[in-house]
Design brief:
Length: 476
């Protein structure tokens, strides 16, 4: 990061702290930053024609005090109804949380001083992602909207290896982390797209990366995040478990961390293409993913433990997955890496078959959890923790590299499809002996214990809601 970018990063962080003292949360700050930064970007990239005359960067900068704040409020309303689709997406239903003119003025001045062409915009994008991560840490959403840690995102992208010309879908896009990391990987392989033809470059920027996000405010942050990384792919506002998801084009790659929990009220997805309807959102998303791949397409999906062992419809979906796809690798993640501490998660890696039967011959499990430290504030989770997993996964993005079973004392083991079937298609496989690293420094933090209790209560409440609906004759 060059000096200019470092100074900018520090300045925006400091400003964030200043506004927080005035009651502005990280969430409000990153939203506010999106509104103002987009205006600045339009000016610097000479694309202000997409904005209505009289409502552009210079029109905001030249005002001061209450006049500036009132104009800013009017501007947000105007832009939210403008005919340009991307502008309308960014400013839809926008309102400001700033109450004091001095705070808006400080934000505008900080960005106005930005030497756009002296700043590495990749770093600016990283800065924005850093703010989103702070926001996720602060919010600790109870709705299952977990921000995927950057080390995990980068490790998944490193083994899935998106290629130029491939389409990449995230049906639960959040703030766009997977799509941006996939784009970053392709850029690193193509000299920032300079190795591609003009037509190929246009495809990468506008069509290669697309997704769906359910929450309007989160989608707004994702759009801004993508804009800062020079991506213009489609990001639909909607529910993937509705016909919106059914109508998405098939993808070469699907990478996602879908929301956890049960659908509100115990309701089932509104998808007439699902063979196994369920109110369990993770299982429903898993069904979407393997149905949404092109033949030969590959996927990586973050799922909680219950997806590996849930009976009845859970077993049916896992069996269908292993029939239609080659489920080649299951990564058992350590606890404490998500902001909702205590959540036990995994990553399923699979490739859609050319036919719909018998595609999984064996499943490789990498146990990153047993005897691992409890990650959190005291022990941060880093990219280097995936080094061994990436090594044994191998270079083949479809999991076909030569692999070696490390035996009962190792972390990487192979189980045949017959072994899995004999377990009732239960994929909750752990073989290492827990050496009791739950004492002293490795003990789970109080937040993790509380979160685990909360997760169990939410699961129980979800079950009660389903039972109530069954008793009321509203569900089968």
């Amino acid at each position: 990061m060059n000096t200019n970018a470092n100074e900018l990063v520090q300045k925006l962080w400091n400003l964030c702290s200043l506004l927080r003292e005035d009651g502005v949360t990280y969430h409000q700050y990153v939203a506010e930053l999106a509104f103002v930064l987009f205006l600045k970007m339009a000016k610097e990239k000479k694309r202000e024609e997409q904005l209505p005359k009289g409502y552009r960067w210079d029109d905001l900068v030249k005002r001061e005090g209450m006049d500036q704040l009132q104009f800013y409020r009017e501007m947000l309303l105007k832009l939210g109804t403008h005919h340009d689709r991307r502008v309308q997406d960014i400013y839809a239903d926008a309102s400001t949380s700033l109450r004091h003119p001095k705070n808006l003025n400080a934000l505008v001045k900080a960005l106005d001083a930005l030497d756009w062409y002296g700043v590495d915009r990749e770093n600016l994008g990283d800065l924005y992602e850093g703010l989103l991560e702070k926001n996720a840490t602060e919010v600790k959403s109870g709705a299952g909207q977990y921000f995927t840690p950057r080390p995990l995102v980068d490790a998944i992208i490193a083994v899935v290896k998106p290629q130029p010309g491939e389409t990449v879908q995230d049906p639960a896009a959040g703030t766009g982390g997977f799509l941006i990391a996939a784009d970053r990987h392709v850029r690193s392989q193509t000299d920032n797209y300079f190795d591609l033809t003009e037509k190929q470059q246009a495809f990468q920027r506008r069509q290669a990366f697309y997704g769906v996000e359910l929450v309007p405010e989160t989608r707004r942050l994702a759009l801004m995040n993508m804009a800062l990384h020079d991506l213009e792919g489609e990001l639909i506002l909607g529910d993937t478990l509705s016909p919106v998801g059914r109508d998405l084009p098939k993808a070469d790659i699907i990478i996602t961390n879908p929301p956890f929990g049960t659908k509100k009220g115990g309701g089932k997805p509104e998808r007439d293409d699902f063979t196994f309807p369920t109110s369990n959102k993770q299982l429903a998303f898993l069904e979407h993913v393997y149905r949404g791949l092109k033949p030969g397409g590959r996927a990586a999906v973050v799922v909680p433990d219950n997806v590996l062992f849930e009976e009845n419809v859970g077993q049916e979906i896992r069996a269908d997955l292993m029939d239609k796809c080659d489920l080649h690798t299951v990564l058992r993640l350590p606890t404490g890496i998500f902001y909702a501490q205590g959540v036990k998660t995994n990553v399923l890696f699979f490739t859609r078959g050319q036919t719909d039967k018998g595609n999984t011959k064996a499943v490789w499990f990498y146990d990153m959890r047993t005897n691992a430290p409890s990650y959190g504030k005291r022990t941060p989770f880093l990219r280097e923790h995936f080094t061994d997993f990436e090594k044994v996964f191998g270079d083949d993005a479809h999991g076909k590299s030569r692999r070696k079973d490390q035996g009962p004392e190792g972390r990487f083991r192979k189980f045949s499809r017959e072994d899995i079937k004999a377990r009732g298609d239960n994929l909750d496989v752990l073989w290492l002996k827990n050496e009791g690293l739950s004492q002293g420094d490795d003990a789970a933090e109080p937040e993790a214990i509380a979160a685990e209790i909360r997760e169990q209560l939410q699961t129980a409440i979800g079950g009660i809601e389903v039972l109530q609906r069954v008793l009321a004759g509203e569900a089968s």
